[in-house]
């Protein structure tokens, strides 16, 4: 197996990176792997190194946290092919392409396919750090969105059938009195349900309640 190293930890005396996550470096050029990993470790990033796409894909954790520095042209699977597999299995993992062959058509192809960024070799260190921070921030934002959505779904699942019905009717634009008539309850009871819904779904206004329903329908 061509995995070169497990992790590189920050050296003493250097401030850790602001954003957490592992930078997976996939490049068949040992000098590029090692120099890039050393520089990133000096800046506080953890890294894992791989000499080919096949070994990288086989070693991927189920829910990787970080980003990938991926050489565009390698023996075996190319960077494009590795990226295509990642889009199917780990779409949340940002990819930064590295290449010594940075023609416009290739750059456009990679970015259109969903790459986070594209850096030409020899790698400019400032550009590298900027791209890595951008990619890690991108994944952190996606993870936060997933957590918020998961929490919303969990709260929705705890509603009673009647609470869900009241919420649906309110989201359809019905006024309290109309909801009351439709469900054969009093307007005061509708207000009680509305207050209970706001408490359970952690919202403050009717607009926020309706937004919860709208967001759920968009999933």
TrEMBL record:
Residues 152-217 form the HTH luxR-type domain. Residues 22-136 form the Response regulatory domain. Gene3D superfamilies: 3.40.50.2300, Winged helix-like DNA-binding domain superfamily/Winged helix DNA-binding domain (1.10.10.10). GO terms for biological process: phosphorelay signal transduction system; regulation of DNA-templated transcription. InterPro entries: CheY-like_superfamily, Sig_transdc_resp-reg_receiver, Tscrpt_reg_LuxR_C, WH-like_DNA-bd_sf. The modification 4-aspartylphosphate is found at residue 71. Keywords: DNA-binding, Phosphoprotein, Transcription, Transcription regulation, Two-component regulatory system. One of its GO terms (molecular function) is DNA binding. PANTHER family: DNA-BINDING TRANSCRIPTIONAL ACTIVATOR DEVR_DOSR (PTHR44688:SF16). This is Uncharacterized protein. The lineage of its organism: Bacteria, Pseudomonadati, Pseudomonadota, Gammaproteobacteria, Nevskiales.
